[in-house]
Design brief:
globular; Aminopeptidase; N-acetyltransferase; GNAT family protein; single chain; Acyl_CoA_acyltransferase; alpha+beta; GNAT_dom
């Protein structure tokens, strides 16, 4: 009997999670996730229509890019934990995969971000081994930077893009982000 090779869109099991490619059927769960105050602080504010458009974009990215974000559910009971995965992007003229994660407020600090990130790094090694993997977050997002450290990503420096600035309200066009890279 021939062994079936994994497909990029197959669910990805981890020790505690089941990661499934995000699609339009996930809008209500994503709305719940992005409505958490801590999640909204770093990723929002979101409207329901915005979440729906983002889910549509993710479903499209899985089709066109062959990569995207997953919804993360607890393997034991199916409860929503968060989302994470990879996105193709251009970083100063270099094609890269960007790894990211978001975990529900009530579950923060339990290693789920690291578990999602580790699964994404393993997935990238299988399906896109030639592409570099990076991660970035606002310089003052200590929780995400700790996850990057746990994933053994190397600090590369500071980049500037639209984002949050510590001590100031709203988005700013030239916020400082800490850039990390997977060491080959």
């Amino acid at each position: 009997m021939a062994m079936l090779l994994p497909r990029a869109t197959d669910p990805v099991p981890t020790e505690r999670l089941l990661l499934t490619p995000i699609g339009l059927g996930d809008v209500d769960d994503l709305w719940r996730l992005y409505s958490d105050p801590l999640v909204a602080r770093w990723t929002g504010p979101w409207s329901y229509d915005g979440v729906e458009a983002w889910a549509r974009d993710m479903a499209s990215r899985w089709l066109t890019d062959g990569v995207g974000k997953w919804l993360a559910r607890d393997r034991s009971d199916g409860a929503l934990v968060g989302r994470g995965g990879l996105s193709r992007m251009d970083l100063a003229g270099e094609a890269v995969l960007e790894v990211g994660w978001v975990v529900r407020d009530a579950l923060a600090g339990r290693g789920f971000g690291t578990e999602i990130g580790r699964a994404a790094l393993d997935w990238a090694s299988t399906f896109f081994p030639a592409l570099p993997v990076i991660a970035f977050t606002e310089v003052h997002n200590r929780a995400s930077r700790a996850v990057m450290h746990h994933l053994d990503l190397r600090f590369e420096g500071i980049i500037h893009r639209e984002g949050l600035v510590e001590g100031r309200d709203g988005l700013h066009p030239d916020a400082a982000f800490a850039l990390y890279r997977r060491v080959p």
